[in-house]
Amino acid sequence: MPLDTKNLAALKSFSDGLPSTERMQGLAGLAGNTIARPFAQLRQNQAKREAERVGLLEGANSPRALVARATADAAALQISAIGDEIARLRLEPPEPGEGEVGVYGYVRRAGKPAPGYAVALLADNDAQVATTRSAEDGSFSLLVKSEALLKLAVFKGKDQVFADRVAVIDAGPIARYRVVDLPGAKSGGGKRDDDAGLGETPEHLRGLVGLTLNRALTWLATHKLELARLLITPRGLQSGHVVRADGDGQQVRLWISLPDQDAEQLDPLAVLIAASPIAARIGLGTIAAAREALRTAETKSLHDAGDLLRLSDRDLAGKLGLKGIEHGKVMRELLEQNLKLIELE
Predict the structure, then answer these.
(1) Does this model's pTM top 0.90?
(2) Contacts of the segment 125-134: beta carbons below 8 A, 24+ positions apart
(3) Which residues have CB under 8 Å from 326's CB, separation 6+?
C-alpha cells in the first residue's frame, strides 16, 4: 500500500530526528561493551582465583603459576580497555562542519574526573581560539572554525597545566577524542605534565620527543635517519606524540602514545602512507587523503588494514576509492611496507 503525503512527511520527520550513522554505530558499541563488561569481570575474577590457587599448590614461580598470572593480568587489561571504551562512547561527539575543528574527551587527575578545568584550543602562537570548562565527569567538547592546526591546552585558573607542544589538531569530518590525565600536575611557571619517556631516550634523539609522527618523520629525514619500527603505546600524556625514541646507527625506533582504540591506531598508518614518496602517484600524498582512503574502505583497525592485502589489485583499488589496477598495486606496496613498521606494545 503506497504511503500518502502525510505519512511520508511523518517518516521524514522521524528520520531527521535520528542520530547520525556514526553516532548510531557508537551507541551500538556502547550497548555491546556495557553487556560485555560483567562477563569480562567474571573472567577476571576466575583468572585471579586460578592464579592464586596454582601459586599456592605449585609455587609462585612455577611455569603454570607464571602462565596463570599472565592470564589474570590480560583479563585485567581487558576490563580496563572496556571501561575506557564505554567512557568514550558515552560522550556525544561534536560534528564538525566544513573547515571546523572538533575535539572532545575527558580531563582527569590521577585517574579521576577533573571538573572545572579550563580546556582550550590554541593557535600556534598560543592565542586561545576556543575554550570551555570540564564538566562534573571531567568531559569537555570544543568546536571551532579554523584553517590552521591547533593545540589542546588545559588551565587551572591562570596556570597552564597541560598543552600540546606543537599544533597537531586539524579540521576534518570526525572530531578528535582526547583524554588528558594530570597525575601530580604542577601549577605555575608554564610547566607541563607531558614529559613521559624523556629519561629513556638517548641525548641525540631527544629532539624527537613531543613531536607528532608527521613532524618526527621530517626530523628523521633532516638528520639522515630511518624509521625502523613504530610502536604504539598507551603510556604518555600526549596523545599522538612521540614519547620515546632509541636507535642503532641510522635505524630509529619510535614510541607513539595513543589511546587503546582502533580508530586512533589507524592514524599512524595514514601518516606513514602519506609520507611515502610513491603515495603522491595515487593521490594519497597528504594525511587527509590517506585517512579518507582508509575510511572509504571501512577500515576500522590495523587488522582490517592487513585484510585488505587479501584482495586483488583491482578490488583493492575499488575498495579504497582509487583508480584501476596500477593504483591498486601501489597501494598494496604502501600497505605492505608500512604495516611491517607498526607494532602494538
Answers:
(1) no
(2) 126/151, 126/153, 126/163, 128/153, 134/106, 134/107
(3) 313
